[in-house]
Design brief:
Strand content of chain A: 15-25%
Structural class of chain A: alpha/beta
Shape of chain A: globular
Distance between the termini of chain A: 26 Å
Order of helices and strands of chain A: HHEHEHEHEEHEHHEHEHEHEHEH
Number of strands of chain A: 11
Oligomer: homotetramer
CATH architecture of chain A: 3-Layer(aba) Sandwich
Strand order of the largest sheet of chain A: 7-2-1-9-10-11
Largest interface: A-C, 74 and 74 residues
Chain lengths: ~300, ~300, ~300, ~300
């Protein structure tokens, strides 16, 4: 099949643009077009459940509403998140914000109480409000539970957060489970520790597995959409080992494969572990997920609604 | 300034999407939005000349029409190309095409006469036609010149290629000079050598400098738009050393900086060499130029025509 | 200071070689030399505790003995590991091995029961032995504990593993704590879940924090040595937030910074969060940790013993 | 074959260390060990000629003596260099040096006349001496030639440079040809242009091809050792297309493959173009060549002399 050269015209829509990428069909254009069709087809297919993993600064980096909306539209069935993305969702729910870098040196930022994520700034005053609010939530959950699994704990948080823009709250309302195997390693985890010093409250690290395995066994087909790598990517793949692996997978990452870390590993490698089925439909998009995922989602929505 | 989360809606236009990236303002979204505004402003500014450098498989990878159209609309004033991108433009002008990979092993491809560029295939039969045609063109140019500079040589080729889709032909018609300091290192160069064995014809490596320096001195302001790195990126920057450096620069690349190669170097480094002016407006977009440049161009066109 | 060109002679020692890198002083040579001196100085300084984080395939990729030996020599004071590196240590303790790739396709590997990590193979039969043995260990620990923290759990495993080559066992013998905040996301975690279905056994996700905070408060100075990124890198940095951040840090990674993920973030960023002290001595080495860490260790040992 | 874990002991030699990498056999260790054996075997094989390509800051970055020594020992038979590496060799021959960064901002460096290459600094006063000296050399060569090919031009420069540490001079003395297809795009090129404005002197871009093709046809076998990518890598591979491709190849680079640029392309791709023979022995080492190439050379020398 021939490469058709991309043609740019005035007032293009996202769908026009994606059609051009599709007809080009090579390099990034081919991969993005492949990922878009796979996402749209997976959403349209009633037998397919969509697992979304969030590693890297997806929420501070501008994808909070994209994730929330996908959940709200019923297009995501299960989320695996880093602890940090949960923390940053709640920071905004409690009135905080993320800020665009003005270029200060990191030592100056420390003095000014601003934490940096690449060119994103956070404010310690927003984290102070976060601390206050999250402890109130801990206390309310602790009234109901002495021991709780991570997923259920996040679900309970979601029910208690009164913020329609929160992806945690939206997931709770829509019964979309959120897993966070590394929850302890974030500000929520740190505050949990402080809370637990004076309260009888246990977060069970293993407690989610029964629910997760039931969920996975209940899926006819699974498409995993993995933003970034890390623990969330691994969990998204490994949770499907029980049923022979995912049926389809999309990953968007800037990590590379040669060092052997899972974050940069080609999805094909998952087949060897039966974390992806033989013949599964797998595509890796190389680039910044905070731009390419919205592009893919925008075009996939048009395909679904179109 | 606060990060506004990206909102995806149905039937978005490219301009809607770019507005979302702009309001997010961080990570790739911030960089792409910056590059788009800079490109649009540079095109609109009558005092600014735009230098476009092409390294990596821009023409085989689907950008032939984007480049050709920018030239035709008068939005590019000078091009620096790798030899390969010139060769691949002519391959198509002579009837050849580029093909989407079907996944064969490289040894099988060799047997089948197919050269591979990532997931792009070429056919040796297309190169055979290329060889035949390019020799006819060499002969015609050689009738007029014994010694010729590289830029003038490419210009003469452009005049002789009857293909409205060729960026070389379109550049010639529009008097947009194309420089290719590494011309000898491509199929055109190889055929030139074969041609020169039997003909008295010299390509002067230094011959372009007078024209180039006059061109640069004639520019009030220069914005360099660099797709990929390599010799074309260096030439785009270095040619402006005569006037104290570029006024603005955009580079789109997947290369990284730590090894010190120019291809991955931050544009800021060019300031130290006076290849970029102090205070110049510089932005690096990390990603695949064959996708991100069309996205930037699409949105910039809307800003210009909007 | 001038770059002195590297001179290679016959029968060089690692120390000779490192001296050449040191005198060159730029690019990778400068970074590796810096990391080596920092590691040696940190080991020699009685007031400094060394935190080692292990993400990516460090144990399957050939560093098992390097890590074990550093622990045994008393040169590492605290470890943060991915679950996978713990699993792969135990796989070898139970008689399994890691194998060098022979190039099969991932679907063939699945049929043959071989899991792939880049060019490293594992065998399902080794994992079967692992499962059997780890359940025996779980049962023994469960005899003593109903609820246990992750660090204590790994410590108890270490005491029960009779393998001098195991870094887990060696750490237990030497009272070097191992933390694994993402423990649940590996084969140990999967088997834990299976075990817990029939047994009353809870792994507390938050339970380590008291011990960890006591440990951190007990350190006069901390040098964090981070192989790969991920959760282990974050935990290594974040655990020091209580005391104003690490005093020195070395990271070795192939990840890059532009996407904003912590794995590729420059260590300087940690200063903004007070995870690294102002004025702390920080160095990032870009490359494959499975080669560069042994090189750094070899030279650091000579500096210490020299 | 099993992964044997790397063992680090006191006072290791480079050869001891490399033996450990070899027995590990996976990830970077496997690749570096493979490259070392291939380089040593290629040097020892009298029927094999070694082509060395130099892109990126190899000479400013500390490899000047390594390259010079390999040439002097007769271990390199042909060099393809970027113009910049030639320029930086001559800068040192004329008394200039390269300097280790002290961290200034690029705008300050411009004011201070210091050009930056990552963390390497150059001084404009060194370039002023360079300009003066190179013009004297041009004049001497111009006395003998009106038109000259690039390779012959560099050879003549080498004969006129009285510096035993210069790799250009050492190559000239040893009749090792140096090609530089992009010569015009460096400070030598800029000065050539200035020189040519007042003098009748033509550098033939195509003039090297006859000599190069004779050289290639005269090689029984070729091993290409490619440091960095760019034009020099392409030229190293493409020059062997005449004889069906290289027999073996080593590349050391931090560039990645997904964007399709040749710099990051896997060497296997060269097989499809018949730039590498079917069955050729090819290895890519991912990392910083200014560290890994000396490591490989040190070990290869021991294997040769051992």
């Amino acid at each position: 099949m021939k490469v058709k050269h991309i043609e740019i015209t005035n007032n293009m829509t996202i769908s026009d643009f994606m059609e051009q990428l599709d007809e080009s069909g090579v390099l990034g254009a081919g991969r993005i077009s492949h990922a878009t069709k796979l996402l749209a087809d997976s959403i349209k297919d009633e037998d397919t459940k969509i697992f979304l993993s969030l590693a890297g600064p997806m929420i501070p980096g501008g994808l909070r509403k994209v994730v929330r909306d996908l959940v709200d539209m019923g297009y995501v069935d299960l989320i695996i998140s880093s602890g940090a993305n949960l923390t940053h969702d709640l920071v905004e729910s409690f009135g905080g914000r993320h800020y665009i870098s003005t270029g200060e040196d990191d030592e100056v930022l420390q003095d000014n109480g601003m934490g940096r994520i690449a060119d994103i700034y956070t404010k310690s005053e927003d984290f102070e409000v976060f601390e206050e609010e999250i402890h109130k939530i801990f206390a309310k959950i602790n009234e109901k539970y002495d021991t709780i699994s991570i997923q259920k704990f996040i679900y309970e948080i979601g029910l208690l957060v009164d913020d329609d823009n929160s992806f945690i709250a939206t997931a709770a309302k829509n019964n979309v489970p959120i897993f966070a195997p590394g929850l302890i390693d974030c500000m929520i985890g740190l505050q949990l520790w402080i809370y637990c010093q004076d309260n009888d409250f246990t977060i069970s690290a293993v407690g989610d597995m029964a629910y997760l395995s039931d969920f996975v066994y209940g899926c006819k087909k699974v498409t995993a959409c993995m933003l970034g790598g890390g623990l969330p990517k691994h969990y998204a793949l490994a949770s499907n080992i029980l049923t022979g692996g995912i049926d389809a997978g999309i990953q968007i990452t800037l990590d590379r494969s040669e060092g052997g870390s899972l974050s940069g590993a080609p999805l094909e490698e998952a087949k060897s572990w039966a974390k992806a089925k033989k013949g599964s439909n797998l595509v890796t998009v190389v680039g910044d997920a905070t731009v390419l995922f919205p592009l893919i989602v925008a075009s996939a929505l048009d395909k679904i609604n179109g």
